[in-house]
Amino acid sequence: MSPAEAPSNVPSSFPSSFRRVVLALDPGADYRTALTEAIHLATALHAELNALFVEDESLFDAARHSFVRRYAPMSARWEPFGEHEVETAFKDLANRVRAAVAEAATRDRLAWSFNVVRGEVEKAALAAARDADLIVLGAGQDALLAGLRSPSLARLGKQARERSVLYVRPRAPVARLLVVAYDGAPGADHALAVAARLASPSELTVALIAPDDKAAAKLEKQAKAILGDRRAGAAFITLPKASAAELCGLSARVGAGALVFGADNPLLGKAAARKRLDETTCRVLVVR
Amino acid sequence: MAEQSEAAGGAPEPLPGGALRRVCDPATIPFETTKEAEPLDHVVGQDRAVEAVEFGIGIRREGYNLFALGPPGTGKHTLIRDYLTRAAATEAPPSDYVYVNNFDDPQKPRAIELPTGRAMPLREALEQLVRELRTALPAAFEGDEYVSRRQMLEGEFKRRQEEMFEAIQAHAKEKGVALMRTPVGLMFAPVRDGEVLEPKEFDKLPEAEQERLKADIEELQKELQKSMEQMPAWGKELAEKLRELNREVTKFAVGHLIQTVREAFTDVPAVVDYLDRVEADIVDNAFDFIRSVMAQETGGAGGAGGAGGAMGRRAAESPDDDALFRRYRVNVMVDNREAEGAPVVYEDHPVLGNLIGRIEHTAQFGALVTDFNLVKPGALHKANGGYLIIDARRLLMQPLSWEELKRTLRAGEIRIESVGQLLSVVSTVSLDPEPIPLDLKIVLVGDRQLYMLLCALDPDFGGLFKVQAEFQHVMPRTDETVGDYSRLIATLAARHELRAFDRGAVARIVEYGQRLADDIERLSTSFRDILDILREADYWAGKNGNGTATATDVQRAIDAKIHRADYVRELVHEQITRGVMLIDVEGSEVGQVNALSVLQLGNFSFGKPSRITARVRLGKGEVVDIERQVELGGALHSKGVLILSSFLGARYCQDRPLALSASLVFEQSYGGVDGDSASSTELYALLSALSGLPIDQSFAVTGSVNQLGEVQAIGGVNQKIEGYFDICSAKGLTGRQGVMIPATNVKHLMLRHDVVEACEAGRFAIYPIETIDQGIALLTGTPAGERGADGAFPEGSVNARVEAQLVEFAKKARAFARAKPDGAGLPDGGENET
């Protein structure tokens, strides 16, 4: 969605909360997918884009051991590996990421910056993005190793809930359709308002977390009030059980590109639910 | 004439007016105006050609192609085309032909023969198929079933990977080691509490622990490597399963679409076979097509990161712009859908490509590329199963066309090759389309000279063009043919939407036809010239406000046509009348005669008088042709002059040497002279010079002469007479002036009205001459004389004077030879009297 197509009647309760979108990438991130997401968000939200490349310091620690080898996928052999190789590899990768950010941001006329920090990836990213309104965390590009260091709700836990975070999965579906987990809580209202800004009504499915029809009707009324003029075209589906599995199943059924939660959603406080959400193929957006 | 001949040298009488022009009586024209005339339903004056054409069309044997030869404008093209069209209408339309992709070898497009009119439906069916593919294929691959089956396969692959990594991760974790990803690959590192152990911390560990960790890491590396080695096999297995899934889905999606086409063409096994190949190719390449459609949807971005609905439905695009789908198109080479008989094609511009077909190329990124869609048909394809008419001269003027046509006829198939391939100058890969069987009849149209040259110089020609259809340039003039000729004129007028011509106009055109034929017993078959006069008369009739064209309009057209072309004639005649060119039309001169020649300027010719003079002296017995000496005289002219020597020797010097040296010259002639039509004139000049008798300059003379002194026919008699008449008219007709023509040319006289009128009024005269004796008698006013019983010519006659002069020359030659101290004769071996 281009800025021109962004809805003009977005609820006034969410006028300009997202001024700064931080894209945090680690050396293994599928930075192109994450960058596309970040550009889309920044454009839709009229925010500036700060790209952050995090050099994982644990890799330096590992490379300093004389007996550590690296497995080179191209040659399928174990080869000597040192601090210098890590340094060089980070530098090359950072340059490529920077060029891609510059090109995309310039094309979409976004204010942008690019920084490199070193540390433990998620922590360094969160620390560097203290002032960010939304953090986009890229995922590993290699499907073989996708599970190794992917941004993880489970790993970041409560810390991540202090700010809005978009978790980009490796090879996530390109569809724009969003499923919003809506339970009527203030965080859910906020999440719904943000989702309305990111997608057109026809691309919006509101999962009403309600035990019965009556409660669902009430939630639907409340959601429509938030959506305002954009309610027409949006789909409303009731989920009696607010489990991560049900939400993931719904997103798969409708072909959703992302699941959207309010930061106060109780599911995010449950380790099992966070683990289940880490396993879903679509992106997860937690809105604070 | 007979009387004059019997008079042995007596002067002939001038021809009566009726012999100077054959008038066509309008009453003989079988209609009042051309509007009432019945259209002509047969060819006029070309019986021989018609018979040959009918034979050529009828005989269906190899090599029986036609060559129609004859002068331009005789209606060859029209007749041939009319006959062929009539014959073709009774024949069945031939098959259609298409070129399709050869999936085994795209460089060799496949030719398919289809029943008449089925090529275009096949093309449309394939285009429809492609349009449907563009939606059906993406739809099939977006379907829930496909997505879930694909996800299952990929999930299985991913699960195996994850299980492998999880197992290794778990194993590593047990040993206090972590598997880590770096920008340049995987590695194992010692960890404590989830964090990588720094080297200084590692060094603090007990040595045994350090060794254990190192050994464990080495073991883990081997384990990972072993596991990683399974990855390609798993990937291959996944790819194979996905490919099979794709094939299955594609087959399901397109099978029924192709079946629809197949059912429409079950009667054409080659098409059914082709459709099987199409289906197999689509199944093999389905994903390429989907990617292509996606690229078009997203403007070439390939869909990555694009907006939702990547497999969107904007599919009803033209397939032309999609290179992948081009391979399923059908290139129609021959489409006889609307044909009502066999084709009759006239190839006006028989360059190689237009004749045999060509392979075109398009430029892509600086390179020239081609495919079967760019194979273009030639005239041979269009005429296959019917008739092809080609102008022979144009064909022969085009490089390679003639040779390729012959090769194609010999081979019996049309094989399209580029010029580069034919000349072996281009070695790049090009197309080699499958040849198409050839079955047609070719009609070459040309002139006789071309036909004779081809017969003489091209050994293949006779075998390939066995039927000679010769068109005559004239036809006999009889009452019956005049009727046909009139109807032909009416038909031409109607066909070309001209106004009606009344019978007087038609009669005048018949006379024009006689004049074009230069023969009162013939009519010209140069219908192009007739049509030109019809059109121009129509113009003048319109200009004069005549609804129906009259004889006056026709005459105006003829006069105007001449006037447009006769500027040079005017100049030449002006030079004579102003005295720049010396031509006397009265008085008498020895050794000087007015000759007549014809100048041809484009399509216009006119007569021009020339002065011929002769001088004689003692010599070696030769007549010197000065034109020849300066290379202005042609071979025929020289032949005529040599005949004069023979005539003189035979008639006057049978028992003595011809001790004569004579010179002949066309005075004030600065161009070439050829033909022997002046040989009688030259002989008259010589006889005058030898006899000393002056020649009446009122006469102009034309005609060739043989060794016996007989005057023979020449060409252009009408123009010659009219040319001299114009000069005399300009200088003033005296009543004595006239032209001596060979008696055998009388039948060719078709003179202008004004000349005829002058002759009838006794102001001008045309004399038919049979012998030199008749002519010299008329020119000198002195009888020529015949040898008497004593062998001598009558005293005072021309011949007696000539003979006396030659005897005198012979005596002098003998005296001259005796006077020489060394006894030598005349220069160059001059004879000695014996």
Index terms:
heterodimer, A: 288 residues, 10-stranded mixed sheet, 10 helices, B: 834 residues, alpha/beta, elongated
| Total strands of chain A | 12
Proportion of beta-strand residues of chain B: 15-25%
Low-confidence runs of chain A (pLDDT<50, min 5 residues)? 1-16, 141-149
- Our measurement of the CA-to-CA distance between the termini of chain B, rounded to an integer number of angstroms, reads 42 Å
Query: What is the CA–CA distance across the termini of chain A?
Result: 22 Å
The structural class of chain B is alpha/beta
Task: Give me the secondary-structure category of chain A.
Answer: alpha/beta
Strand arrangement within the widest β-sheet of chain B reads 23-24-22-21-26-29-30
Name the biggest interface.
A-B, 44 and 41 residues
Output the strand order for the largest sheet of chain A: 5-2-1-6-7-12-11-8-9-10
Number of helices of chain A: 10
Helix/strand order of chain A: EHEHEEHEHEHHEEHEHEHEHE
Please describe the biggest sheet of chain B, giving its number of strands, its sense, and whether it closes into a barrel: 7 strands, mixed
What value does the Rg of chain B take, in angstroms?
47 Å
Number of E-state strands of chain B: 30
Mean pLDDT of chain A: 79
Poorly predicted regions of chain B are 1-9, 300-321, 828-834
Molecular shape of chain A: elongated
The mean pLDDT of chain B is 86
Main beta sheet of chain A: 10 strands, mixed
User: What oligomeric arrangement do these chains adopt?
Assistant: heterodimer
What does this entry look like structurally?
Chain A is α/β, with parallel strands linked by helices and 288 residues long. Helix content of chain A is 38%, strand content 23%. Chain A is built from 10 helices and 12 strands. In chain A, strand 1, helix 1 and strand 2 (48-56) form a beta-alpha-beta unit. The two termini of chain A are 22 Å apart. Chain B has 834 residues and is an alpha/beta fold. Helices cover 47% and strands 16% of the residues of chain B. Chains A and B meet through helix 1, helix 2, strand 3, helix 3 and helix 5 of A and helix 5, strand 4, strand 5, strand 6 and helix 7 of B.
